[in-house]
User: Fold this.
Amino acid sequence: MRYKIVLKESDDGFSVWVPGLPGCWSQGETEAEAIKNIREAIHEYLAARDEILKDTVVREVDVAV
Assistant:
């Protein structure tokens, strides 16, 4: 699965977050490290989401934009 990420460089390195996964963010001293870290954060985020949604009814809806 592919997710869009946003990278922002600062004096301390790179911050990175996933607009499609609220609260999913990470950082790294280099761009490569930040991307590695956000991959791990996405895996953890999705595992936590799946645990929270366990035993619930989940549906999809279409939205016209």
The chain has a mean pLDDT of 97. Strands lie at 6-10, 13-17, 25-28. The CA atoms of residues 7 and 16 lie 4 Å apart. The helical segments are 31-53.
